[in-house]
Amino acid sequence: MPTLEQSLLSLIDQHGFSHRRDRIMGAAKPSIRLVSAPASPVAGRTQFGGESALLPTARWPESDGCALPLLAQIDLAALPPVTRGLPTSGLLSFFYDFEAMPQGGGHDRTGYEVVYTPDPASACELPSDTSTISVKPLLAVPDITVPPFRSIEMDALDFSRDDRERYWDFRHAVLQLASTGDGPVNRILGHPDGIQGCMQRILQFETRGLTLPKGVYSWYEHPRAEELMPGAHDWRLLLQVDSDADHFDTYWGDNGSLFFWIHRDDLEARRFERSWLVLQCH
After folding, report:
1. Is 147 buried (19+), middle (13-18) or exposed (0-12) by CB count in 10 A?
2. What is the DSSP letter of 212?
3. pLDDT digits (tens, 9 = 90+) for 142-185
4. DSSP bridge partners of 30
5. What CATH number did the domain enclosing 168 receive?
6. Of 34, 65, 77, 155, which cross-links 138 as Cys (Cβ 3.0–4.6 Å)?
């Protein structure tokens, strides 16, 4: 069976990108696809939802005095070995206000939280006192991703107009490498399946309290673009949760997705509480 890298090389040639092979392969990132699966020792504690969580302290995450529902719990020890900086053990727990449905972004850290539990054996198992989605076990499978449109990584490919037109079908084919259909895509790490544009650029500026000046419509034209824009590459996709009303009782805005991001420095320092959320929808 060919590896994901070999399959990607084959798709590059099939879609007429042989002349861009090195650039596309250089921009590709490994990822982990989360798919529905029966509970098993292989999956560990990786799941959507649930009525309890293993947490490092006896405190259930809150927002404005209200408990936040558990969105997902990831068993890091059960992930494939393509994690690029994630801890190799422990749990990552993601909490989100399903009712208020905050859109996040670089100005808003309310209504969601990410908690890292380094040692589950000594953690507190706390019950939730708020409604949550029913538990859905997940299986983590290796995946490979290429840059989405309107992203800083796509800009670096410097495609011609003809290349960009063919890239739609190419990227759709890449999405099928770890899937058997066109259903929702949930993933850890890799390139996001963005809907509205480049989240890294937005976070790079907005997390510093910056906005676009009046009459400026591109971050590349921001007065501090030359200084800050290169740092947009330092943001890492931590978790993507797609709308999936049929299987996971999740539906974000107008058929959108939740994206949890973390800066490279915070990832290396295990400061997962500094993660940022972005909700994008159609």
Report:
1. buried
2. P
3. 999 999 998 999 988 888 888 888 999 999 999 999 876 678 89
4. 144
5. 2.30.320.10
6. 34
Total domain count, the chain? 1
pLDDT exceeding 90 applies to what percent of the chain?
65
Q: How far apart are CA 51 and CA 35, in angstroms?
A: 20
The pTM is what? 0.94
**For the segment 18-77, what is each residue's pLDDT rounded down to a tens digit?**
989 999 999 999 999 999 877 655 556 899 998 888 899 888 999 888 899 999 999 999
Eight-class DSSP state of 259: E
Return d(Cα 97, Cα 224) in angstroms, integer. Answer: 34
Q: Tell me the C-alpha distance between 204 and 210, whole Å.
A: 9
- What residue numbers bound the domain in which 115 lies? 4-280
d(CA 48, CA 73): 6
